[in-house]
Amino acid sequence: MLRWVVLLTSCLLATTAAERSFVVDHEANCFRKDGEPFQYISGSMHYYRIPRELWPDRLLKLKAAGFNTVQTYIPWNQHEPVPGQLVFDGNKNLFSFLELCNQMGILVLLRPGPFIAAEFEFGGFPSWITTISPDLRFRQSEQHYLTTVLGWFRTLLPMLPPYLYQQGGPVIGIQIENEYGSNPACDLDYMRALTQTHREILGDDILLYSVNGPGKHMLDCGTLPELYNTVDFGSGGSITKPFGIQAQYNKGGPPVNTEFYPGWLSLWGHKFPSVPRARVASSLDKMLSMGASVNMYMFHGGSNFGFIGGAKGDAKGKVLVPQLTSYDYDAPLSEAGDTTMKYFDIRDVLSKYSKVGHVPANSTKVNYGTLGLSYTAHVTDRDFVTACGRVVTNNRALSFEENNQTNGVVIYTRHLDQSGELVLSKVRDRAYVISNGVWVTTVKGSSFNTSISVNAGKLEIIVFSDGHMNTGHVQVPSPRHYMKGITEVVLFNGAELKGWSVTLLPLTDLSCYKPARGKQEPSSFLPGSLYTGELLSCIEGTDTFLDTQGWGKGVAYFGDINLGRYWPLAGPQVTLYVPSPFCKAGNLRVSMLELERPSSTVEFLDTPNLRGPVDPSQL
Length: 619
Known about the structure:
This protein is an alpha+beta fold. About 20% of the residues lie in helices and about 25% in strands.
């Protein structure tokens, strides 16, 4: 501790004058902003997980708590969903977010990846990258991968200079890759290529940094001399030890915790995690008192609206456990942007080191009660497919990605001339097998070479994606391993089954479909059934929570907006957050695309429930 006190004192004494600069002072062991010693106190907040209308509220609460900086990832897949098609609108407008931060006097740390982890769909990678070549190897200097990644950076990075601090913007630092030392590839040529490209485009003035866990192997494989190398760790353990290890990989400079965890990630089928707030506040205080710069991951998590939630892979990437739609993270600011007791404990700590401000009020939450829903369609209905999808022909059954789709539903259809044994070698993530209009069985993504007895006639295999793997410690032999849908050969009575009609339903929203009245519900439930009701009033400027209790697994829509996946059978998340910008005047259609267990009602509550019962056997 004494060593860090001496370093902090030397930094305060060795001030120099400069204009619009942000640098590492390697001799005085501190950051300098405009020549003055500077300690950043940052909170992570992802612009794409928050409705754009709510950015000001979340940033005001960040600043009111005493933070002077915000950190965010830049997810490649949200900005280039198909090759060459750039998207920077709505809550994906990175540049509007940066301008707002600048107007509010909040500095920014950017993390453009390309791998971002973040419990996010495919760790930020676009799914189409899996189809470039079977030889492609992620996060390595392999030619197919590196050429594609550098092509993205040569598109993105030239847009950033106006937002750099040295040019009047808020961005004080940019991270290279993300915890790369946890990747078994340990390819430092890849890290050098990323660093060189950033320098060529952004110049020498912007701070480029890395982050890794505080272990020797991680830092050996995830750091470069030309970067400022930082570490990440949570609360309750030693603080001086990880910072001491960090110091060994820099030639002087301040201690930095790039990911200090006030909470933790949450998974379907697992209890919602909680991190004691007193422990968080104590560790934060200790770090700041020794002059460390800290980023809190997460300050505010937001939501995985639509299909942006990812999945955690096991050590070999074979078994996936999807992340919740809520990205609450047990953070100081809740999923709905509400201040918590943890928020005020942290604010009390930060008041000793920075300026705190007036805390904006939390939003009003409304209980609308019970809403009845009725059957309106099935995903195989001709009118639904015509409105919301397209039909293609595959000789051999192809994956989602090979059919130019990322998530949602894909239906593989084939007429069988005889009864027999169907063998699904591998599907991801959930396959519902229907024979002549009867639900026969469900095949989970953890299964291999599943044998199913089916009758002659119409065979339909409805496949649902739970989200692409986002864990970076896994190294798989082929990009095909990341694909969704039917990814390996389908056998029927021992021979490969070919000649498929394939229905592609992205279902990113439901603006495509206007339900017909009076549609007859089948006598027995079929996975992929749509149930709809109308909410007769919606108070603008208020939030609510859609309670999915009684339903099984599926996707919920409020109006035409995809709220995300629900799965109360697995738990622990029971409610889905409906933020105020989604509430529009007039009647609002509420729809549940159900895959396993239908109900006839939903409730709208004024409180969330993220801590319901869990059932890991559902995975």
